[in-house]
Fold Vinylacetyl-CoA Delta-isomerase.
Amino acid sequence: MVLRTGEEYVNAIRHRNKVEIYVMGKEVKDVTEHPFLKPSVLAFKATYDAAHEEDSKSLGRAWSSFINEEVNRFTHIHRSPEDLAAKVKLLRKISHKTGACFQRCVGWDALNTIYVTSRLMAEKGKKEYYERFVEYLKYVQKNDIALAGAMTDVKGVRTLRPNEQPHAYLRVTQVTKDGIYVSGAKANITGIAASEEIIVMPTRAMGEKDKDFAVAFSIPLDTESIKVIIGRQVNDGRRLEEGEIDGLPYRTNHEGLVIFDNVFVPMERVFMLGDWQMSGILVEIFSSYHRQGYGGCKSGLGDVIIGAAYNLAKQIGVEKAPHIQNKLNEMVLLNENMYGSGIAASLDAVKLCEDGCWWVNPMFANVTKQLVTRFPYEITKFSTDIAGGIIGTAPSEWDLKNPKLKPYIEKYLQGMMDYSTEDRLRMVRLLENIGFSVAFLIESVHGAGSPEAQRIAINRVYDYEYAEKIAKYLSQTEKRIEFKENAEPWRSTDTEKLANNGGQK
Ligand code: SF4
Ligand code: FE
């Protein structure tokens, strides 16, 4: 089962034990056939296919020293800065194959995060988490499991701590010698219905009184007393139309609210229990990993939008106009900035433990995500400008398929004769469905932590005092300076120093 094919993954999801998943109030029998979730399963499937397709298999596979076999990179523990860069490249590539958020990266980032945190705890003498985790990792790699990562709690009133509003944070309600019981909910969990297992992590730095909330574990989705409620997205009703132009062909992602109603977790799946001091570090490590990844997947979607805008410009004969070329050029600059930053976060990685534990550069990872909160909106704006108002007004595919209307639509929406009206409508829909999607806009702002979380992280790394010293020296308001060895005016990229506050709001 190491290196499953996409088909094997879909079959496994289709034939798994019963899971309790709801879409628009109704329980879903088979996610692989449900029109609302099928596009999401297909996007997830692409992460399996990528390990087999000629153009992507060198990025899509990696060597695991844990099981001494080649594994799908989505289950791999990064062993070098180049491994981290390969992640960003792979995500850009799979965006081209799906035009969607393909959802599997969250579980991958969670896997790497727990690897690092359990190693750090082992180095301080608490070895059981690491030992359990390595066994779990081997199981995941051998079976090429589809993982979701669950970090965000519902959080209720943001000024209250977990112990002041226990229902708002997932918590341990009972510990026995065999395992733990947990209750609570995790929100906005990407790809949950298409996953087989969830890795659950704490959402913020915890104090001593919050130790019941400092818990990390993994659990199969088909465990009793877990319920999933899938959220809505813009244009999601189109999936239910089962058309072939307007909605269904687009692979999409979904997010869900996952409810844990006194769920039992066996002890061998518990990777943190009451270690409140580690909670903020874990959040910091996870969020930086995921922020780095956005440099790949969002630039990949950017390529799709640039391509669609270029094609639509050609379809109406304006692709050589200087102002169109300037706009396309701006889109490329914005896009490559996001990507370049993700690559920098990878190649300038930080080594957190003796035999590896390669963590992304936290400054560049946070800068990447901060760019991603802004640039996709700019890219979509330029593409809207190029495409014209038709992006918001085009007739539906059902109009095009109506024989009474088809000749009129074909006549009046025709552009250059090299393209049919259907070509134009297809491209308009592609641009609309991706350029205005949750994956490209809303998730770009709030996924992997809202913009303020990155500003806090950036401020923690950047040493304003040192920058001021440089300015004072050059203006000769101070006569002497002791230059640091490093070129960057950063305090530290040490996780413990960075984690006082946790990575998220
Ligand atoms: Fe992967 Fe990007 Fe989706 Fe996150 S937003 S799961 S990094 S594709
Ligand atoms: Fe995300």
